[in-house]
Specification:
Number of domains: 2
Largest sheet: 7 strands, mixed
Structural class: alpha/beta
Bound molecules: glycinamide ribonucleotide
Number of strands: 9
CATH architecture of the largest domain: 3-Layer(aba) Sandwich
CATH superfamily of the largest domain: Formyl transferase, N-terminal domain
Strand content: 15-25%
CATH class of the largest domain: Alpha Beta
Shape: globular
Helix content: 25-40%
Strand order of the largest sheet: 3-2-1-4-5-6-7
Radius of gyration: 17 Å
Number of helices: 6
CATH topology of the largest domain: Rossmann fold
């Protein structure tokens, strides 16, 4: 099986990106990050990519707000297609993708979110969790659908909320789990072990692995 080609979209400091780069280098990820795109020119994620010798591009978002302008989004698609990515991994990408983008990479876009979805979608999920008073939060890797943080869930990890936690301390504890489960989810995808039925993602045992996504298959 050839290694999965991963395109990462990130808006910020890029620790999830770094975790994927490190896992790939250490042979713990069944794929490699071949391109990193950002809507923020100064994003540390772009720096991290360049340092690792990975193609890194700032593509201007074209407008303020939650979504990219349509010409800008078309450029994202063009560049990702040119890089022949099998999977688009959102890693702290703070824009909502249009239904066209989602359809273009149907069930080939993953997102990591710092809460146990469907609780606390959207921005500052850790702050939302603290303010709500939950005793357990965590993180979720899911396929991206046309909603916001609503797509089929692949893996979740629980993280306890401790007495005296601040947004920063809870975020830091959750982040450790994010780094672990993003690699795990991508490996399941690379092994073609994810089969999606409606909202439900079935994780197939290793021996059934031909039933999921196959990067070598042409449609
Ligand atoms: C991560 O906590 C990620 O889960 C979150 O942004 C952070 C990015 O950190 N994403 C979202 O909130 C998306 N709704 P990183 O840049 O260090 O990977």
């Amino acid at each position: 099986m050839r290694r999965l080609r991963i395109g990462v979209l990130a808006s910020g400091r890029g620790t999830n990106l770094q975790a994927l780069i490190d896992a790939s280098r250490e042979g713990r990820l069944l794929g490699e990050v071949v391109i990193v795109l950002s809507d923020v020119a100064s994003a540390m994620a772009l720096e991290r990519a360049r340092k690792a010798g990975i193609q890194a591009c700032y593509i201007e978002p074209g407008r303020k707000g939650a979504r990219l302008a349509s010409e800008s989004e078309a450029r994202y698609i063009e560049v990702l297609d040119e890089a022949r990515v099998d999977l688009v991994a959102l890693a702290g990408f703070m824009r909502i993708l249009s239904p066209d983008f989602v359809r273009h990479y149907k069930l080939r876009i993953m997102n990591i979110h710092p809460s146990l979805l469907p609780s606390f979608p959207g921005l500052r999920a850790q702050k939302q969790a603290l303010e709500y008073g939950v005793k357990i939060s965590g993180c979720t890797v899911h396929f991206v659908d046309e909603g916001v943080d609503t797509g089929p869930i692949i893996i979740q990890a629980a993280v306890p909320v401790l007495e005296g936690d601040t947004e920063a301390s809870l975020s830091e504890r959750i982040l450790k789990e994010e780094h672990r489960i993003y690699t795990e989810a991508i490996n399941l995808f690379a092994q073609q072990r994810l089969r999606v039925e409606g909202r439900i993602v079935h994780v197939l045992p290793l021996r059934c692995m031909n039933a999921g996504y196959n990067p070598d298959q042409t449609e």
